[in-house]
DNA sequence: CCGCTATTAGCACTTGGTACTAATATGAGT
DNA sequence: ACTCATATTAGTACCAAGTGCTAATAGCGG
């Protein structure tokens, strides 16, 4: 026997895990057993066939892509918006957003949500942030949902500036406050949302 | 004829593009032509079969995953660091970091680089950002390399605070300035809000 | 009616499997 | 050594979603 069954199955799981694209045939050569043995192993371990494995990976990507496209331009999901006035977005903090050590969300994600919202609330796709002041009041952890509310507090049409205040909260407790001085890039605004 | 060939092929490309998981059979039903016609179309258009399409998507994800893991904890690459004193990181602005409309880098990426660097320069893995003031002085575009320099400017050990100033520049021109009030979590600080 | 393109049909073959049955090995217990 | 159980191997039929190839037919313009 080349390897005890248990050990082979462990190694098999590992192999497939770090290269899902490997066929039963390749595996049978690698472990020097028959293809059937590999298949029995996969069945016992509940590992699907190559095509299904690939499909899963692909579906995951595809969903991610679909999901990340809207996210691309706005971090968090906008649930309410009144152009030039106010907007609200929610952002679910996931494990990838936090420091591994303490599970606290990294500041730039809160900033990204708030800044995106500030850009979005401007009636101008080409708005840029000029200045900003931030306060991180309470740490946010994975699993929490951050609700950001943006309000346009002031405007200065001559200078093409607008001032936006964003307050983010988790369960009604404020966790973050940001003020943003925004610059409008379009020419003089004639009046209506396009 | 249900549709001119050209139009069908255009629609076919589109269909496959926004759902790569569709089979020839499904497509033949959809366009009300035979499977063979669909296959001829794919050949003319150079569109690979379903399995190959799925594989491509999967391979892409797989590579992306491997690539994105190391980037996880620090945005930008730290090229020099003296703990509690100063640090330098570089960040290459790529197409995914900019607004599609005007190719200008989204503010949160510059913030993320600066904030990450501020966290890193603290001799404390668990540092948190408390307050921050930002100035976006000049727009940064895709293809440019942003060099961020962080400097610890002040400390307040009793309050577990430190103040970090980060200046980011492209080709020696300052594009961004941020000041960060950081909170150290280590030491024996008992008053930790969870 | 000829010629041309477009479409459809049919068959053999390919990959990477599943499902199932049956034979053989191997080792442990008694 | 004999027996039983588990492990392994072999072999067959079948499937999905194709490719590759040949051949037939449809539709239309001139």
Describe this structure in words.
The structure is a homodimer of 194-residue chains. The first copy, chain A, is α+β, with helices and mostly antiparallel strands and 194 residues long. In chain A, 37% of the residues lie in helices and 28% in strands. Chain A contains 5 helices and 6 strands. In chain A, strands 1-2-4-5-6-3 form a 6-stranded antiparallel beta sheet, with helices on one face. In chain A, helix 2 (24-31) crosses helix 3 (35-45). Mean pLDDT of chain A is 85; it is low at 66-72 and 187-194. Strand 3 (128-136) of chain A pairs antiparallel with strand 3 (128-136) of chain B, so a sheet runs across the interface. Chain A binds a DNA duplex (30 and 30 nucleotides) through residues 1, 5, 23-25, 33-37, 39-40, 43, 49-52. Chains A, B: Residues 115-154 form the Thioesterase domain. Chains A, B: InterPro entries: DeoR_HTH, HotDog_dom_sf, Thioestr_dom, Transcription_factor_FapR, WH-like_DNA-bd_sf, WH_DNA-bd_sf. Chains A, B: Keywords: DNA-binding, Fatty acid biosynthesis, Fatty acid metabolism, Lipid biosynthesis, Lipid metabolism, Repressor, Transcription, Transcription regulation. Chains A, B: GO terms for molecular function: DNA binding; DNA-binding transcription factor activity.
